[in-house]
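User: structure tokens for this one?
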Amino acid sequence: MMRGTMALSSRGWLRLGCVTALMGAACSDDGVPASGSASATGTDDSLSSDATIDETSADTTPGSATQTGTGTSQTTAATTTDPSGPGDTGTTAVDTSSSDPTGSSDPTGSSDATGSGSGDSGDSSASASESSSGGGTDTGAVEDCTCAPGTDVIYVLSDNAELWSFDPVTYDFAFVGAFQCANEFGTFSMGVDRKGIAWVMFQSADLYTIDVNNPAMCVDPGYNPNQMGFGLFGMAFVSESVENPCDRLYGNTYSGGLGFQEGPNFGTLGSLDPASLLIDPIGSTDYDGAELTGTGDGRLFGFAGVNPAKLVEFDKTDATVLDILPLGALELTNAFAFGFFGGDFYMFTENNTGLASQVTHLDYDDSDMSGMQELEVVVDAAPIRIVGAGVSTCVPVIDPQ
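Assistant:
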């Protein structure tokens, strides 16, 4: 970990800490949070405060028309909160860990897309021998892990089953399509694989798949909900490694009803076997309710925790924590999600209306070379309330600009 200072100005960005070494999905909850859990009021004023608060970094062991979101030029003063409870107002000192940002499932009934993906991930080989990660079995089978068309953006999911894309370069949202899966209502989370298949979880904890290039076609892959203690879970696809671009779906459990919570062994990380559609538990986490995102070089991250929310990097083989970055004044809201793109992260949380989401950009790789990791609200009001985000591992691992 590296110690630095945190300052949040009124332009909407937050300096999270000095960076001297660089390496290189949203749960919707209608319940009332328990003490110490994320606010269920739908109000997110966390990035509009001028106060600074003492914060201790947690050190844990275990198409159609395009619509542009409204960007902000408002800055907020950095506030961070002690993870053990509400902090006192005062000068902030923050421990941050500078992570190294270096750096398929085959759904039933989906078409086999073979288009080439875009981006600078450098890992879209046409085929690869699938390796096992997170407890899966290595069959030695050769799998086509080519990037399908349309897998080079972040996809976001509305609470009323609409699929949109988000361009992290222009901050534009574009409507992709609406879908209806059987008699399901109430979306919960989403992950997108390299073939352009979005795996959508509903409030029933059942999973369906839709093709991002034809979202009106919803397929029931035959997943059996509530396996191994996994009901609802936030999810993401992650490549096996730098050498093997083939991806696997990972999830972190959410018990539901009490708001998002943080504590020893509150959650479980697992993976979904793409052939059997069986859950394989990997290990315990400290997060009851976390959204996940993965990278093309094999890294797994979570947007999780309370007082404040945190960016957590997990070892996907055993669920151990590799790094934690507290996110200052940013907190989880009833609907939240996030995605990785080009070395950075984009967090989607409810704005102060509770009816739409705002977008916060974390300059994780310090691409502006300021020596700091900064949080900035780049869209004040998205066209939808976002409950899930899916990013394939075809998106660039480093800044494409």
